[in-house]
Design a protein that fits this description.
Layout: H1 2-25, H2 35-46, H3 65-75, H4 87-100, H5 110-119, H6 126-142, H7 145-155, H8 165-173, H9 182-190, H10 205-221, H11 248-251
Helix pairs in contact: 1-6, 3-9, 3-10, 5-6, 5-7, 9-10
């Protein structure tokens, strides 16, 4: 216990000295790599595999509004309201983790996911969550919501070796991120934050319900066309006015024992 507290103290000191500068750079600097990408490359090399990460940067206005809204609904529908932490979801995650007696549901916001993707190892632990919290505070204090979302949509993992909206759109749908339809956007958003486990084309009952739920909420908020209506308008309100999330229990629990998606860039 003492050793963990000592490590945390050292980490906080390093963060105090160095991380504000690293986060400040993100205001006008697009990262070319992330901690998660480097970790994945190291894992592939250790296994003797060749991995060719794909990531093509796109400004937020070059990404389909349908994908922007689908991701927010799927991952963090209080994104424009909170300051980095969604306490309601954290409490839900703690309750479910305790009931399962294992650390499975993190309740992480988009900002928290961005913090660990950019700077931390993917391994789950209490210590990592504390580090993540410190970085989340720095990100929210330094960057605008628009910039946080832009960074997230460009560096988030969307499959083995697939990073960001543009690479994911081209890989799964052979189209640019700017040209995604609402159905395609929902399919991509539905596999977050477990893109190595799930596929946008999965026919499993849980994934089908998840896609349906996201699409219905997009329609309710006006970010996807109704079943018999005109195409999605080019200009959508921003930030979105979101409907309340569906009770997670109504979706049932994801299959955490499922094998990773067959889609891969490892050779």
């Amino acid at each position: 216990m003492f050793r963990k507290l000592f490590k945390l103290a050292i980490f906080c000191f390093v963060v105090y000295l160095l991380w504000p500068y690293s986060v400040f750079q993100l205001k006008d600097h697009n990262p070319q790599t992330t901690s998660l990408m480097e970790r994945r490359l190291a894992e592939a090399e250790r296994l003797g595999h060749k991995m060719h990460p794909q990531m093509e940067w796109r400004n937020l206005n070059q990404i389909s509004p349908a994908l922007v809204h689908a991701v927010i609904l799927a991952e963090d529908d209080q994104f424009y309201v909170h300051h980095g932490f969604d306490m309601e979801q954290i409490l839900i995650a703690v309750h479910r983790d305790l009931s399962k007696r294992q650390y499975v549901y993190g309740g992480s916001t988009i900002t928290q996911q961005l913090a660990r993707t950019l700077f931390l190892r993917p391994k789950k632990s209490i210590l990592r969550k504390l580090k993540e919290a410190v970085l989340t505070v720095y990100l929210e204090a330094t960057l605008s919501k628009k910039r946080i979302l832009e960074l997230y949509l460009n560096v988030i993992e969307w499959g083995p070796g697939i990073y960001g909206a543009e690479a994911a759109s081209e890989y799964y749908f052979w189209t640019a991120a700017s040209a995604l339809t609402s159905d395609e956007a929902v399919a991509l958003a539905s596999i977050l934050p477990s893109p190595r486990r799930w596929s946008p084309f999965s026919e499993k009952a849980y994934m089908a319900r998840r896609r349906t739920n996201i699409l219905e909420r997009m329609r309710e908020a006006g970010y996807a066309p109704a079943l018999e209506s005109s195409p999605l308008e080019e200009s959508l309100p921003f930030p979105p006015v979101l409907s309340p999330p569906t009770d997670p229990n109504q979706l049932s629990e994801p299959d955490h024992t499922a094998a990773p998606s067959a889609n891969t860039r490892e050779q």
